Amino acid sequence: MAKAIACGLNNKFELEIIGRNKQKLESFIKDNNLANTIIHATNKINLQDKIVILAIKPYAFDSFKYKNKANTIYSIMAGISIERLKNVLDSEYYCRVMPNIASLVGEGTNIIYTQNLEVEKNASEIFSALGKCIFVEKEQLINSAGAVSGSGTAYLGIVAEAMIDAGVREGLSLDSSKEIVRSLFSGFAKLFEIKEASEIRLDTTSPNGTTAEAICVLENRAIRSAFIDAIHNANKKANSI
Ligand SMILES: NC(=O)c1ccc[n+]([C@@H]2O[C@H](COP(=O)([O-])OP(=O)(O)OC[C@H]3O[C@@H](n4cnc5c(N)ncnc54)[C@H](OP(=O)(O)O)[C@@H]3O)[C@@H](O)[C@H]2O)c1
Hints:
Elements: H1 2-9, E1 16-19, H2 22-31, E2 38-41, E3 44-46, E4 51-54, E5 65-67, E6 69-75, H3 82-88, E7 90-98, E8 108-113, H4 117-127, E9 131-135, H5 140-150, H6 152-169, H7 174-194, H8 197-204, H9 210-220, H10 223-240
Helix pairs in contact: 5-10, 6-7
The structure holds NADP nicotinamide-adenine-dinucleotide phosphate (NAP).
NADP nicotinamide-adenine-dinucleotide phosphate (NAP) binds at residues 1-2, 19-21, 24, 55-58, 60, 63, 76-78, 98-101, 150.
């Protein structure tokens, strides 16, 4: 996620990137062409008046030492509440953001929670460089949104892989199966902008047709409840971190 965020914000904001390993930081800068970025290889972070985006693993955030008071902490860590952030980091404002990996191509979904209107404006300015910003009114909903959207790219990855494999089973070459599934995903995304999911499904399903046969198998294998239970478990996990 740090890579997606740094690449998305590069040349739009003045960036300082902090990490614990100098070599890794140097190759991070080189590999991602982050030429105008300042790097600090340290585990002691001076927050003084800074706008900070915390993109470390939830279990690792208190392994850094933080000094002074930040302007705003934007935490993308799954499951770490503002209350827990306050115990470790001093800041004027705190904001939780749940991005997803589509930020890498500027099409991310950033779910944001803040109680402050000024921070809301600033968060929009920063995170709209990575994709869409959607605000939620309760902090708890960040974990729910993370279970749907933060992890969602992984679920869709499984669907895409399975469909590519299925195409190959039905005789398509791997390359053409991939091309077809990619095109399907991007066409579906555009259609979904203007139609309900159920409408798209019904429009594709003729009585006694081929799609109805396929859907019958998916419903028999409980595809809907598999997704509902999966997202419920992801949310439960975030709530238990
Ligand atoms: N992946 C997603 O799709 C996604 C979506 C939404 C939110 N998030 C959140 O984004 C954050 C980063 O996740 P990620 O998937 O981007 O992971 P990642 O690519 O593995 O990046 C994790 C970063 O944390 C650092 N780190 C790991 N263990 C550490 C430790 N013990 N002490 C200090 N630093 C440590 C790593 O530093 P080194 O380079 O030094 O190892 C690395 O830069 C997480 O809090 C996650 O909840 C992820």
